[in-house]
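Tutorial sheet, problem 5. The three components below are modelled jointly, 949 residues in total.
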Amino acid sequence: MSRPVLKVEHLKKYYPIRKGAFSKEKTVVKACDDVSFELYTGETLGIVGESGCGKTTTIQSVIRLIEPTDGTILLNGEDFRAMRGEELKQARQKLKLIFQDPYSSLNPRMTVKEIISEPLEIAGVCPDRAERDRRVLETMEQVGLDPSYVNRYPHEFSGGQRQRIGIARAIVLRPDVVICDEPVSALDVSIQAKIINLLRQFQRELDLAYIFISHDLGVVRHIAHRVLVMYLGRVVEEGESKELFARPLHPYTQALLASVPRMDAEGKPAPALQGDVPSPADPPSGCLFHTRCPYAQEMCAAHAPELREVSAGHKCACHFAGGLPSKGE
Amino acid sequence: MKRKREPSPVLTYRGYYRESWELLKRDPLAMVSLVIVIFLVIIAVFAPLIAPYDPDKQVLSQKLMDPCLEHWFGCDKHGRDILSRCIYGCRVSLSVGLVSQIIATVIGYFMGVCAGYFGGKADAVISFLIQVFSSLPDLLLAMALMFALGSGLVNLYISLGVLAWARTARLIRGTVLQLKEKEYVKSCKVDGGSDLRVILRHLLPNCIPTLIITVTMGIPSAILSEASLSFLGLGVRSPMASWGSMIAESQEFFRSKAFYSLFPGLCIIVAVIAFNTLGDGLRDALDPKLRK
Amino acid sequence: MAETVLEVKDLSITFFTKQGALPTVDGVSFTLDRGETLGIVGESGCGKSMTVNGILQMVPAPGRVTGGSVKLAGEELVGMREKELCKKRGQDVAIIFQEPMTSLNPLMTCGRQISETIQAHKKVSRREADQRALELIELVGIPMPEKIFHSIPGQLSGGMRQRIVIAMALCNNPGVLICDEPTTALDVTVQAQILGLINELKEKFGTAVIFITHDLGVIRQMADKVLVMYVGQAVEQVDAKELFDNPLHPYTQGLMRCIPGMDGGDGDLHVIDGSVPMLYDLPKGCLFAPRCPYADDRCRGERPGFYGAGGHRVRCFRCESMGEEGSR
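Model answer (structure tokens):
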């Protein structure tokens, strides 16, 4: 395949914190630790994991909404982290973001036109007002919004329509990569389906690459080509979507899949995992998952497993990937 | 690329300020105070047309005249018409209130945005300044400033404005801290929008309700401070009429000629209550949390 | 064995607003036996939560229960005095909300909150109440109950908080437990734990459960029978197994098909056309007709009844042949 449109290598975001209110001793929270991935044109990369696993920190570091601590980000082969000023501004036109909450992601004091045309204004691509308005109307039509509502305020729209406004804003500049941070989590299922279909349609028509974050495994399985599973800031498994959902290697991925309530299977749920995600400020030693892992052995508490390729394109960070020992030791 | 459109939005939303106005109209107390405020503003603007006499003209034969048909509010110790002086005093009070609040708002918004939006060192310094200004006794500081600058209307504007910024800055800082986390601010930054753009396009429009409320609630306290300073002889220069200075002049006649201090006192009370009540009503109407 | 603990008949709730009288809940009926779980499913604004408020007689203004009856263990709740209702709530019927923090006092220790709830309904000493609270904390599967007893809610994770709320709800061993989207804010692994816990406790105490959710997968795992709601009306009401094997109402069918499955195809997702109508602008005929792929002139002209026999009831003309049962 050709060169990836976005390549992220060893991305790290550490937050220093004090151990106690009066203690001088400092420690770091590894919100995102050594995350690497590649994203190709027309492809969707799904990132799944429970809350606090670092999904949002990862993508916010990728788009430099927060400055990453370390790592490289190559956008179309150019070093995105080294960019400054005008160069950065132009590069940002290729990288867009869609937020989860359709209520707080649109400025309540701006009309739909102002919201959608803001990226155009910032980029300075259409100095001509009439031309800009034409692009706004065209994009509204594309995302399925009636262009006659161009002068209305976000309050007047339902959640699904607001999310369409957010999508219009993201695609109006024809970006290369669109990052979707839980874009359908706040929506009802029937509206969720419409938005997912819309996103897939734009992917086909505009050759967009998506990074799609969701805690809903069904949605990710449907939309993503490849999937990263994150746990406590680290990638624990990566693979082709079909392969990963059919043959999950990491015990955490297996537990996640087993926990999803399914419509097709009868029977009472059997909780696959005990306890909660440990605090990122005080992570377990060795393998981060060993405190909750049903297969944990002595060595898991001592040594952190590397993310290694188990089969072609399917990576897993588990000492026993491919051949798990029997449950409980 | 025609696609099926979403059906029309069903909510009828006429814009934030129209909606707030509708809410305000339903508050009888706020509407009464709004009428009084408008009335006071008209008096202040058209004082020369409304006032029956020249406020500074001394007619010694009318010295301390009781209220009568010619002089509704009576005359003061120099034989000047108190009604006319109250009308001109309204000019002083309202202009002091408004101008000092505008100065306070400009400084306060700028400081508040710097502290809230940029954070870090700027926040530490500005927050410290806010603390210092709010822990000093207002009136003493105003007196000190007026001593330093000398009395006069312009100096009143400046000293009261400089004193009131801390309150505005504190509120704006809090509002900005919340707004900064909003996703539309983040998406503007992701689009490469400059800090100036964020501050002007996204933060300012969302701060305006807060600013309207602080100005309305700040005016009465500025009016009171002006009255106190003028009472102490640190406000406007005589013979300029101000409600506070009129009360000061009437001191020796508290017992014998009650009307002398009564009328300017009433003016202060009416103006302060009207602005405060209007401010309360505006806060209820503009606060999104109190909606629905 | 089938002992009916809750009987709701033709419950209607109307909101009186500027736009007129809005039928927020329109003639919902069901019975709930001991140890049984009723799932109520539907999209936001379909009247799920309001139905529950109606059962508890806690409809917020400007809404009012405008018809029907709610019998809790044979006692009529509609029209009951507020003082007696207060006694019922928490004692005979308890509720768990989506966001646990809304029902917890952030400044009081978890243990004290539970024991206070016990003392509010029973005359017991502080010591006895505390003892019982500790047992309850242990019962809901919290490790190190003594430590949690003395913690304030802010120190706990979302899943732990929800367990505390469940312990509080269970402290008077209520006959009916209402769960209003109790796991929507939780992660899947924690959701599985909480769902497991609710099922376990239900079996242990024979509590009847009303489970409200928008997630059909959760319904499948939890419910014995299901009520599908659309714009304030029950559109389909049947045993859970039958519902998933043989959904009859076009809305139910649409809902099931638009969820991306764990093993579905890659094509575009099925969508239900249009959007939910507003309560002040309801269609003249069947409420679902404007979005229904099978709608004909009759559907657009008149409201269908709630047809069906043998426990499967559907509000659709296509099921008219199943026979009329009950009114409406």
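Marking note: The radius of gyration of chain B is 23 Å. Full credit if you identified this.
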